[in-house]
Automatic annotation (TrEMBL):
GO terms for biological process: alginic acid biosynthetic process. Belongs to the membrane-bound acyltransferase family. It comes from the Bacteria. This is Poly(Beta-D-mannuronate) O-acetylase. Keywords: Acyltransferase, Cell membrane, Membrane, Transferase, Transmembrane, Transmembrane helix. The chain crosses the membrane at residues 143-163, 175-195, 225-242, 254-274. InterPro entries: Ac/AlaTfrase_AlgI/DltB, AlgI, MB_O-acyltransferase, MBOAT_fam. One of its GO terms (molecular function) is acyltransferase activity. Pfam families: MBOAT (PF03062). It is found in: Cell membrane. GO terms for cellular component: plasma membrane. It is a multi-pass membrane protein.
Length: 289
């Protein structure tokens, strides 16, 4: 348990302090603070950057909590299960912030009647649950819209499955799965625009820039100017989309290291954090809710 705990602490610290904080301070915040100043391609990569930032922030916090609990002899369940690998919005909510989605299901969705009162009521309950979940994050139209989009998507998927009489376990395979993951990921990223922006107007401006002022010719300049950010984004997404067997192999490798090896690994990571860390302390995003 000690070795596994060290692995989760290292994983969480890397996600939060190396990836999330760096791309936030050096790229994402600049785009979201004033999207009108940037082209559509810059705004789009800002959205993809935020999707990675919030995942690494949330899951990094959870990983470190799991790691420290293991060091003390306690076992906490996983809270994030590679959510951007989801091939549907329902699958996404089975993987994203599992403790929150479980709470929403048990205390809101089921309390509203769940799927026990007919198909139409089920669709309404899904929408209401996610609307209330959005409001839980804050009394802002942006959170309501974010929750509303997720609720509509969940209801639409439920309606489609009922229409085709598909079982719950039926999933996509092969090239269909690839496109299902791609569509789900981009839908979730689209919703993050409303979650991250402080006003509805800012979200509209960002979407307008992406749709009407894309300017792909600035892409190479963007890469050259923010190459460190894009390297970290590449590493972050590579680690996220890598097969689960890779993470399991890394965990086993850390577990097998002698105590001195584990200590050296932590020292190297802390040194790396110090080297790239911004001067501003970046609190965990979830602390604001």
């Amino acid at each position: 348990m000690f070795g596994t705990g060290v692995f989760f602490i290292i994983s969480g610290l890397f996600k939060k302090a190396v990836i999330s904080d760096y791309i936030s301070v050096n790229f994402v915040e600049r785009i979201f603070d004033n999207p009108a100043l940037y082209s559509g391609v810059e705004n789009l990569f800002g959205v993809y950057g935020y999707a990675l930032q919030i995942y690494c922030d949330f899951s990094g916090y959870s990983d470190m909590a799991i790691g420290f609990a293991l060091l003390l002899g306690f076992r906490f369940p996983m809270n994030f299960n590679s959510p951007y690998k989801a091939d549907s919005i329902t699958d996404f909510w089975h993987r994203w912030h599992i403790s929150l989605s479980t709470w929403l299901r048990d205390y809101l969705y089921i309390s509203l009647g769940g799927n026990r009162k007919g198909k139409v009521r089920t669709y309404i309950n899904l929408c209401l649950t996610m609307l209330l979940g959005g409001l839980w994050h804050g009394a802002s139209w942006n959170f309501v819209i974010w929750g509303g989009f997720h609720g509509i998507a969940l209801a639409a998927q439920k309606f489609w499955r009922n229409l085709l009489h598909k079982p719950k376990t039926a999933g996509s395979k092969g090239i269909r799965k690839f496109f299902a993951v791609l569509v789900t990921f981009n839908f979730v990223c689209f919703c993050w625009i409303f979650f991250r922006n402080t006003t509805f107007e800012a979200s509209v401006v960002m979407l307008k820039q992406i749709c009407t002022a894309f300017h792909p010719e600035v892409f190479m300049q963007l890469i050259e100017g923010y190459w460190k950010v894009f390297v970290l984004m590449g590493i972050g997404y590579l680690l996220h989309f890598a097969p689960d067997s890779w993470q399991n192999a890394c965990c086993r490798g850390v577990v097998k290291l002698p105590l001195l090896g584990k200590a050296l690994l932590l020292v190297v990571l802390i040194y790396l954090v110090i080297q790239i860390k911004s001067s501003d302390i970046q609190p965990f995003i979830y602390f604001q809710f």
